């Protein structure tokens, strides 16, 4: 019986180690480039006052989570509604800039991004903070599945 338990545990450990294999440098580089493109596309949409376009970088699912100063928001539509409520006009949205990006692929289909956001808003006053994004590759597309912005 002991032998069977050791065999099962050894098999489980081997499976876990194989599943957690590191990315090749080429795969990690491709993931970073694809994620950077998502962020660039989001920035361009925001800066032209297109909140819905900005949200295309997010997972369109009820399990999307946004964590901000008001707490947790679940769901793509609720997150979009909150953005529209908080930034009702292009002037309120201002001009978005992401900086100090650290894109860290975690597996072939997951990555985290740490960085700083800044909104230049001459009339309403600038806003800024930091964020941690969790990206997943779903159906071949990198999307934000969790956003913790402060």
Topology:
Blueprint: H1 2-19, H2 25-47, H3 51-54, E1 65-68, E2 71-74, H4 76-86, H5 90-93, E3 95-107, E4 110-120, E5 127-138, E6 141-149
Parallel strand pairs: 1-6
Antiparallel strand pairs: 1-2, 3-4, 4-5, 5-6
Domain DUF4440: 35-144
Signal peptide: 1-19
Keywords: Signal
Helix content: 40-55%
Q: How would you characterize the largest beta sheet?
A: 6 strands, mixed
As residue ranges, the low-confidence spans are 1-18
Strands of the largest sheet, in order across it?
2-1-6-5-4-3
Share of residues in strands: 35-45%
Tell how many strands the DSSP assignment holds.
6
Tell me what the CATH architecture is. Roll
Distance between the termini: 53 Å
Structure annotation, total helices = 5
Class per helix and strand makeup: alpha+beta
The H-and-E topology, N to C, reads as HHHEEHHEEEE
Rg result: 19 Å
**Basic shape:** globular
CATH class: Alpha Beta
Integer tally of domains: 1
Mean pLDDT: 89
Question: CATH topology, anyone?
Answer: Nuclear Transport Factor 2, Chain: A
Signal peptide: 1-19
Pfam family, one: DUF4440
Protein name: Nuclear transport factor 2 family protein
Keywords: Signal
């Amino acid at each position: 019986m002991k032998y069977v338990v050791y065999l099962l545990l050894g098999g489980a450990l081997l499976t876990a180690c194989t599943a957690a294999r590191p990315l090749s440098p080429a795969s990690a580089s491709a993931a970073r480039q694809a994620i950077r493109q998502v962020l660039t596309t989001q920035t361009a949409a925001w800066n032209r006052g297109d909140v819905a376009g900005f949200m295309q970088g997010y997972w369109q699912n009820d399990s999307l989570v946004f964590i901000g100063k008001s707490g947790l928001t679940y769901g793509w539509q609720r997150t979009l509604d909150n953005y529209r409520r908080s930034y009702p006009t292009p002037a309120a949205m201002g001009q978005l800039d992401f900086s100090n990006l650290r894109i860290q692929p975690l597996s072939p289909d997951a990555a985290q991004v740490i960085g700083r956001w800044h909104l230049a808003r001459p009339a309403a006053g600038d806003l800024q903070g930091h964020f941690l994004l969790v990206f997943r590759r779903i159906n071949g597309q990198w999307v934000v599945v969790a956003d913790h912005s402060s």
